[in-house]
Amino acid sequence: MKRILITAIAVILLQGCSSEPEELARGELDFLDTDGQVIRTIEVEFAEDDAARARGLMHRRQLTLSEGMLFIFPTPDSLSFWMANTPLPLDIMFVGADSGIVNIAKRTTPLSHEHIRSTDLAQYVVEVRGGFSDRFGIDSSTSIRWKKTE
Description:
The chain is an alpha+beta fold. The chain is built from three helices and nine strands. Helix 2 links the parallel strand 2 and strand 3. It has one domain: Jelly Rolls, CATH 2.60.120.1140. The chain is globular. The protein has a seven-stranded mixed sheet with strand order 6-5-8-3-2-1-9. Strands 4-7 form a two-stranded antiparallel sheet.
């Protein structure tokens, strides 16, 4: 009887710790030139809590040039990311509280444990497919804006 009770408790606990990630809010993100004109618009998932920010784009095997993820932090800080469990090269854009791009780590090394850091305080991070920023001319003069659609 004791063994059955322990097994039942273990099953309940495992169900509560599902490995399926929760559905993230979605929306659109615009990259803007210095005149405020749209350079490119992509669809993004919003990583707004600790769990979503920690998971990021890990284990994703596909990411088109029209997709990405926006990480939103509560306050500006010196941010650090890594590519552990991320099999795709990414461009990681660190963005200040003013929505201007601080710096871009281009074509990051998949599955690396190397820390990729912001060069100044950042409150947001945009992750897109590696090569995106070069292809569309995104640089530190670019800013972003976004809206949630879901």
